[in-house]
């Protein structure tokens, strides 16, 4: 038996075993994906908040043609700390802390369904060139927003799957 045929047989056996045990992927749960795509994300002003909204729209699979059933209110607290000071007291590294508080509201009733808090920390270099310093700071904001969006999406998917119902 060739390696390719053996691999195919192994994949088929694993798939059959998982289906026999009742395994269901989280996003296959009825109501999770349609609920996530029906969320309108509202963020405050600011670059990191804007990036977070863009990432959340992507992560949640936002349906731009449908009327939203839920609103996700986001608050972002962003702080930057100098780390790795050089002998001339100039930082060569920064630590970015993003604290995201969110509230999921059902638009039809105005009822708060879920609240949550996501802290994210990233670090980035501070090169000598001012333009490179701006680019690395923006990259840190982009990475922090992406991480927060993934964690919020997971929390909301668990909520809609019935695995995390406490507000």
Task: Describe what this molecule looks like in 3D.
Helices cover 41% and strands 30% of the residues. The chain has 167 residues and is of the alpha+beta class. It has a single domain, classed as Lipoprotein like domain (Double Stranded RNA Binding Domain, 2-Layer Sandwich), CATH 3.30.160.150. The mean pLDDT is 82.
Topology:
Elements: H1 3-20, H2 32-37, E1 39-42, H3 47-59, E2 70-85, E3 91-106, E4 112-125, H4 130-160
Parallel strand pairs: 1-2
Antiparallel strand pairs: 2-3, 3-4
Number of strands: 4
The helix/strand order is HHEHEEEH
Number of domains: 1
Q: Under CATH, the topology is which? A: Double Stranded RNA Binding Domain
What would CATH call the architecture?
2-Layer Sandwich
**Structural class, from helix and strand content?**
alpha+beta
- Bin the strand percentage: 25-35%
Strands of the largest sheet, in order across it? Answer: 1-2-3-4
Largest sheet: 4 strands, mixed
What would the average pLDDT be, to the nearest integer? 82
Q: Percentage of helical residues?
A: 40-55%
The gyration radius over C-alpha positions equals 21 Å
Shape: flat
- Measured between the Cα atoms of the first and last residue, the distance is 55 Å
CATH superfamily: Lipoprotein like domain
Count of runs of 4 or more consecutive helical residues: 4
CATH class: Alpha Beta
In the predicted model, the low-confidence regions spanning at least 5 consecutive residues are none
């Amino acid at each position: 038996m060739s390696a390719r045929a053996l691999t195919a047989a192994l994949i088929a056996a694993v798939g059959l075993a998982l289906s026999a045990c009742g395994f269901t992927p989280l996003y296959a749960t009825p109501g999770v994906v349609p609920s996530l795509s029906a969320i309108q994300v509202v963020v405050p002003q600011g670059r990191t908040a804007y990036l977070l909204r863009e990432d959340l729209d992507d992560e949640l699979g936002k349906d731009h043609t449908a009327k939203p059933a839920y609103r996700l209110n986001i608050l972002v607290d962003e702080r930057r700390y100098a780390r790795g000071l050089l002998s001339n007291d100039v930082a060569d590294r920064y630590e970015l802390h993003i604290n995201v508080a969110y509230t999921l509201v059902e638009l039809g009733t105005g009822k708060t369904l879920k609240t949550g808090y996501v802290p994210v920390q990233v670090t980035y270099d501070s090169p000598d060139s001012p333009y490179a310093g701006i680019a690395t700071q923006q990259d840190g904001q982009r990475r922090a927003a992406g991480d927060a969006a993934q964690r919020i999406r997971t929390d909301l998917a668990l909520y809609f799957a019935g695995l995390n119902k406490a507000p």
